[in-house]
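Sample 1 of the test manifest.
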Amino acid sequence: MDKAVRVLFVEDEEKDVALSVRELERGGFKVTSKRVDSAESMIASLNEGGFDIILSDHTMPRFSAPAALEILKQSGIKLPFIIVSGTLRAEVAVAIMRNGAQDYVDKGDLSRLAAIVERELLESEKRRNERELLNVSNTLLKEAYHLAHIGGWDWLMENDTVIWTEELYEIAGRDISLPAPTYAEQQRIYTPASWEKLVRAVKNALTSGETYNLELELVLPDGSIRWTNAIGGVKRDAGGKILGLHGTLQDINDRKHIESELEQKTAEAIASEQKAMIYFDFLAHDMANILSPMMIYADIIKLKPNDPAEVLKFINKTHEQVKRAAALIYNLRRLESVDKLHPNEIDVIDLRTLFSAMDDNIRSAFPNKAIEMSYDIPDVESMAVKGGEWMQQVFHCIYDNAVRHSVNSTVKLDIKASMQQEGKQDYWLIEVSDNGPGISNKLKKHYSASIVNSKEGFKGVASSIPFCISFMRCIGGEMLIGDRIDGDPTQGTKITIRLPRGE
Amino acid sequence: MALSIFVVEDEKAFVHVYDAIFRLAGFQLADWAFSGEEAVEKYRSRIKNPDLIIMDHRLPGMNGVETMRELIKMDPSAKVLFVSADEKAKQMSLDNGAIAFILKPFSLANFIDTINSNVSSRAKQ
């Protein structure tokens, strides 16, 4: 069965074409052909297309094989190019073949022509298949790199020349029409810490030949930061001399964010578990301290059932402990609710309203105590602070503590408020000083350490301090326990509260 | 002669508890300290060889074990009975020289028995 072949003859002699066609047909080919004998007609025919092979004479009046070969190369079309000539010296033939022609056949002996064409057609098909395969795999690779957000780069040390792939431009957020930044220019596209890390790794790679694998922070043109994974290795010439580096840069921003989110969640979970353990420990400890007296009083009542006065006395004492247990549970619930409180759920309250309400509150709580309150408050229109109704509990805790522990016939409470600015945030600074016995440094430490405390000595007040501290933190404020006179814990207590100004 | 007992305990509710127990059992309160520091100070200046020291563990400042070490340093024959809600303090207190450990909450009988079986009046000896 005839093998179809489409031949482009570069030949000025029609009869030579006929001879070659006859030879090919003898070799089993069914030939269709076209003859050209000038650069213009060759270019036109190549543009038309539809050829499997080119058979070219060497020397023609208006054209030549080397010129035809050059046109073929320029066109980018891949076709086997065979010289069919009668006047060629061996060294000229070799030179043309070095330049890209596949073979040479003497016009005087065309017997090899069919075999050579057959071989070249097979080779050509093989090369075409390989090219197609390469194209497919290149496309796949490009897509894979795009999906994986991996960019490639190449750097030649000499002249500091850098090439980036399209994906790398995208990762770095740079205009693809601009040249890739040179190694020296890359200092600008990394954070200082990452650049330092990269420079060290590059130096090491160039001296030791080792590959590096780093996590680097890219600075995008808009100033945002993108986490990347950089891998680089050396490029060598045939003699093993290091020419530069090449490698990849992968965008790992999403992964980094997930990782840091996970880390934060884990830390929160651990903190929350630790907190629960501390709550549990304090609860167990305080419950034991409440139950001890109850057990002893019950035992005593059992021993003296016939002494009504004693029985009543110990029942009353037991009742006090029951009240403490109830207070403990109440405080725990309050602490829990503060933990769950979201800053946006907290209202604003005016400090003057708060001071006035708390003044009444403390006087009615201790009707038999002489309480003197003095205020040093600036004359401003609004004294709104964050905290809402919760602030009443905070102030109750502070006032109650001062009055209950006072050793003087008159309890003095000085309240001073002033505005403070820190950055863009305004704060109200409130200082409450009393004339009580003060709080020792040891006890201050003890207060801040205790999460839950229902010790009778503090009458449920100490238990409120952790609540107050937690609450202040929750609304972006602060509560500090100090001395009325700094460094002298015997001269009274000064509680300082810093509250963010309310809108 | 009644046993004299020095109590180191920051829980004020226990003032009443020990007062009631001591009355029933015929013990005598030598003194009371609400913190480890106060205990050391009182032991150094005022307390004269009590027959027993009752020691809580969780105290503001120095804890019970630290306080006990200081007291034993001053008085190697001091007898310290730990009474604490903190179970973890048990081994630590016994290792550091406590004669016994009572876990809160405790019963009247358990408390008195522990004292009677471990302590006798120094005056009797």
